[in-house]
Amino acid sequence: MKNLQLEDVILLLHPIFAVAVVFPLLGIVLYFAAQTRQRRLLPKEAGKKIPPTVGTEHLRLGRWLSNAVVGVALLGNAAPIFTKLSKEPTVDSFRVWFLILIIAATIASLVILNRARTQLWRGVFATLTGMGLIILGSQPEVYRRGEIYDFTNKQWFTQEWYLSHYYYGIAAALLMIFSLAIFPDIYKDRSQRWRKTHVVLNIIATLFFLGQGLTGPRDLLEIPLSWQTQHIYKCDYENNVCPP
Ligand code: HEM
Ligand code: HEM
């Protein structure tokens, strides 16, 4: 611990929350999802062996999961933004307040989304929560592994966007917000269309979560401790060599 500075500890909060809270919750939600589907589809006798509460347990923990994923994505964006801004020689205080306002508005939208009853309000506050995440994620301090501008040679570089922790993370968080917005419709709809949509989209979300489990630890290994950065970033990342 003595090699960590405050800034490193702040950056660690996000992976700690993901590993200690989000992934265990995901495991339980997936277990109850499989039980819910089996109970509904197995022949009567076999299905009866599964308790009738699995659907509501899946929903109860699924709601916690969605909120936790939005939280972990906010933390993943906010931590690098504010630690990088705190090191700038001059900071635009309007921008700092704007970003704080966006974070507060995103959290408020998420809270209201959890309470909203009608389809209209759920749609409105799901959109606002998603927009908040995207606005934060679009800040130049957030590393997206997408495209970067090389100021020396005046050209854009395309990076490995298909292995981006940012894009998979935002996609997973948006799918969780969508689940929060539509889950009452799963019960209302006799044709089961929403149920099927929910299952397909959340299998995709589960793949994104798996992606986060791969790309997150990779990023953790690549990012140096704060007092090592000025030395490490002298390395040539194209050819994987460092000055002696
Ligand atoms: C993490 C990924 C998730 C997966 C893979 C998943 C998958 C499933 C599956 C397989 C079912 C059963 C479908 C059937 O009966 O055929 C289901 C039902 C349901 N899910 Fe999810 N789900 C996930 C997350 C969530 C979340 C985050 C919520 C709420 C915010 C949610 C709400 C519901 C509801 C309300 C039902 C209906 C339960 C019932 O029949 O009582 N799910 N889900
Ligand atoms: C549900 C799971 C997760 C989600 C939704 C998520 C989301 C995000 C987002 C949106 C960012 C900001 C973009 C970026 O810098 O790449 C981020 C950053 C990051 N995440 Fe995650 N993440 C998750 C899990 C993890 C895990 C399991 C780890 C590591 C064990 C991890 C490590 C990191 C690191 C090291 C950063 C970079 C922070 C920086 O740039 O200083 N994440 N995450």
UniProtKB/TrEMBL annotation:
The chain crosses the membrane at residues 12-34, 64-82, 94-113, 120-137, 166-187, 199-215. It holds the Pfam family DUF4079. Keywords: Membrane, Transmembrane, Transmembrane helix. InterPro entries: DUF4079. The keyword Transmembrane applies. This is DUF4079 domain-containing protein. It comes from Pegethrix bostrychoides GSE-TBD4-15B. The lineage of its organism: Bacteria, Bacillati, Cyanobacteriota, Cyanophyceae, Oculatellales.
